[in-house]
Write a structure and sequence with these properties.
Immunoglobulin-like; six-stranded mixed beta sheet; transmembrane; 4 helices; 39% strand; 4 domains; glycoprotein; repeat; single chain; 19% helix; SH3_domain; eight-stranded mixed beta sheet; alpha+beta; disordered C terminus; 510 residues; Ig-like_fold
């Protein structure tokens, strides 16, 4: 009866409201229903059209259960005054014409909202809408994690969804390490459930590969993203020795390390034994449920020969054991192969370096020899003088002098401008001198002027050709048949006499 009476009252109110709007010409536009998400802002859009001056805009909320009216917000356009009330204080305000913005909507904000507008003729118009606040549900998984189960058994993971508004959800699924379990259902025997009809997920015959993070995810109209809750599943499995050093032959006094790595959960206890006697080792925890243990021999002895076993146990199953055999031989007398190899390598390297140095020395000597051969080449090949002109001058001068005919000068080829007929004095040999027998007038700029009894220091060349000499402060060529080479003792006297003569002439000139 109360429901029928309330419906009739609301219908009569709406009819009277439409009649009043038709009489005053004030039209309010308000949606019949507005959805909001808890924790987010919501706007109830409201517009009006009127030619009259507005005196008051007021929003009132009425609860759906007890019909209790609560003032939400008032605004006086003439005075510019506005105020929010009660649970809406600081959270409600007017936007645009008469729209109501509620910040951080809560579940208690749900209900019917009345908009009242009063004009300057004190006529009041009203409109009504309903605000529905959608509340995301809470998701809980169990049993409380981390959940530990022994391999080979089955486990049930529960998923509970509650406190959502509305209470229904659109979908539910499970994930393992961020991958949907639906993609892991290979043969249909491993997983069952994990849907909206059966939220709990059953994992059968669990093994070490089933360990990981399991997540229950649901979709709800109150959230644009899936709502999730997770738990961690750990699987206990027996240990196994995954890696061990190989059997080997070592030498006494060597350093030896035997390594053993085992896998298992809980982490296994790894030990080394020899003939049933436990040996000390250094355990080390590694990622992914691995543990290592190293047996170190700082100095091997002959009696260290034997069988060594690595065992791993963790209380699950019988554990695992692997063995190896170490043979210790006596120290090698004399040089071993490694030392011989190093010595051979050093010797070969030294020989190669010596060969490179010899080749480099030969190359440098060759370059120096070529440089010394070409040192005085310009005396034979002055720029601007042709060979034919030199021969003509030599012939003409030879015919006018009283001395013998000078020998032919060596001809220069474009590839070798050195003095091919001259031989350089050997290193360490005494200085050589020659006395001029006949006067000689130079026919070229690179030749010396010779007077009888002049003493020339022979720089290069021998009797029978052209020689390079030093005379009176000049270096040049001279024909060897115009002079006679002096023995060492006679040459020293001749040089001394020539120096005395030069000094005497110098005093007379002074």
């Amino acid at each position: 009866m109360h429901v029928v009476w309330a419906s009739a009252t609301l219908l009569s109110f709406l009819l009277s409201l439409q009649a009043a709007q038709a009489q005053t010409g004030l039209q309010l536009t308000l949606p019949a229903k507005v959805n909001a998400i808890a924790g987010e802002d919501v706007v109830i859009p409201a517009t009006y059209t009127t030619s009259r001056q507005l005196n008051l805009i007021e929003w009132i909320k009425r609860d759906s259960v007890d019909q209790k009216a609560t003032q939400v917000y008032t605004y006086n356009p003439l005075l510019g005054n506005s105020k929010s009330y009660g649970q809406f204080a600081g959270r409600a305000r007017i936007e645009d014409q008469a729209s109501l913005r509620i910040m951080r909507a809560a579940s208690g904000d749900a209900g019917r909202y009345f908009l009242k507008i009063m004009t300057d003729d004190l006529v009041t118009e009203e409109a009504i809408t309903e605000l529905v606040v959608l509340v995301p549900p809470e998701v809980k998984v169990g049993p409380p994690g981390p959940l530990v189960v022994t391999s080979g058994k089955s486990v049930t993971l529960k998923c509970t969804v509650f406190n959502g508004r509305p209470n229904n959800i659109s979908s539910l699924w499970w994930e393992k390490d961020n991958m949907p379990v639906e993609h892991l259902r290979l043969d249909g025997m491993k997983y069952s459930g994990g849907t909206m009809k059966m939220p709990s997920l059953v994992v059968r015959f669990v093994d070490r590969m089933d360990a990981g993070r399991y997540t229950c995810a649901v979709r709800h109209p109150a959230s644009s993203r899936p709502i999730k809750a997770s738990l961690t599943l750990k699987v206990q499995y027996p240990p196994s020795v995954t890696r061990i050093s190989e059997s080997l032959i070592a030498t006494a006094d060597d350093v030896l390390t035997l390594e053993c790595i085992a896998d298992g959960y809980p982490l296994p206890n790894v030990t080394w034994t020899r003939d049933g006697v436990r040996l000390p080792c250094k355990p080390q925890n590694l990622p992914h449920n691995l543990r290592a243990c190293s047996q170190v021999f700082d100095m091997l002895r002959m009696n260290d020969t034997g069988s060594y076993k690595c065992s791993a146990t963790n209380g699950i199953g019988d554990g695992d054991t692997k063995a190896l055999f170490v043979t210790v031989r006596p120290p090698t007398k004399g040089l071993d192969m490694f030392t011989i190899a190093i010595a051979t390598g050093v010797l070969v390297g030294c020989l190669w370096l010596g060969l490179c140095l010899v080749l480099l020395g030969c190359y440098i000597r060759k370059r120096q020899h070529e440089k010394e051969r070409n040192k005085f080449a310009f005396y034979y090949n002055l720029i601007g003088r042709g060979e034919g002109a030199i021969e003509d001058k030599t012939a003409a001068t030879a015919s006018t002098t009283d001395g013998p005919k000078p020998p032919d000068k060596p001809k220069m080829s474009p590839l070798n401008t050195g003095i091919g007929t001259l031989r350089k004095n050997k290193k360490g040999q005494d200085r050589r001198f020659a006395r001029v027998l006949y006067p000689y007038s130079p026919t070229d700029e690179n030749e010396l002027q010779l007077d009888i009894d002049d003493v020339i220091e022979v720089l290069e060349g021998e009797n029978g050709g052209w020689c390079l000499g030093y005379l009176k402060g000049r270096i040049g060529l001279f024909p060897s048949n115009y002079a006679v080479f002096l023995p060492t003792t006679e040459a020293k006297k001749a040089v001394a006499a020539q120096l005395t003569n030069i000094e005497g002439k110098g005093k007379l000139s002074i």
